[in-house]
Amino acid sequence: MPPSDKVHIAPIEDADLPGTFKMMSLSFGSDAPFINAYFLAHDTPAGQAQGAERLLAWKQSSPDSQFLKAVSTRGGEEIVIGIGIWTYMVEQPPQTLEDAEGEEDVRKYWPREEEREWMKALWREYVKPRTRAVVGSKGKGVCVLELLAVHPEYRRLGAGAALVNAGLSAADDKGVGAVIESTDAGRQLYEKCGLKCEIEKMNFDVGEGFSGKKTPKLCFMVKGASGAS
């Protein structure tokens, strides 16, 4: 039975996270360098269990992060078909992976040195544009879409747009802008939701030691505060 065309947005429950992480892994596949580095082996049972554990820890420790799910129905049962995580940032984001995750967890989640150093290098570059956005807000902060994924089998039902617009509405309520690090696949959706590309290709200066690695191809997109000129 096909899913209902109706999609609604609700807060994610802790019990949703294992299945939601698996859905996220399917959504990104293997061609997402940042996700692949941040959630190692996310397409394996062990990687998915660890990923769900990390999302749960994030959800429970970050009151400024809003974990949202897009829900449809099939056969009379609700199914989660999308996830969106928005964070309201007034302070600058952690500038190093150790600051973001903690020394102990960095070694736990990236036990191999090469993978650990690669993720550290990516993180340093990844947070630079959003840091400038937070600083540029002059204390007001910005809303950051940290993660968006829709199940591949349930696209074109409006789940992605609903998850994006929920965060943009929250930003409008706060009177602040919003930022997104967008893949090529997501850019058209974000543009339809009113965001504009500020940095066409984010720079990842990871150093000569990683010259053979595939870096993320991301566009930094922004939406000004509601009513801003």
How does this model look, in words?
This protein is an alpha+beta fold. It has one domain: Gcn5-related N-acetyltransferase (GNAT) (Aminopeptidase), CATH 3.40.630. Helices cover 42% and strands 22% of the residues. A seven-stranded mixed sheet has the order 1-2-3-4-5-7-6, with helices on both faces. α7 links the parallel β4 (142-150) and β5.
Please tally the β strands and state the result: 7
CATH overall fold name: Aminopeptidase
Largest sheet: 7 strands, mixed
Count of discrete domains: 1
Q: Assign a percent range to the helix content.
A: 40-55%
Class computed from helices, strands and strand pairing: alpha+beta
The H-level CATH homologous superfamily, spelled out, is: Gcn5-related N-acetyltransferase (GNAT)
Question: Largest beta sheet: what is the strand line-up?
Answer: 1-2-3-4-5-7-6
CATH class: Alpha Beta
Order of helices and strands: EHHHEEHHHEHEHEE
Terminal residue distance: 48 Å
Over the alpha carbons, how many angstroms does the gyration radius reach? 17 Å
Oligomer: single chain
Overall spatial form:
globular
Unreliable parts: none
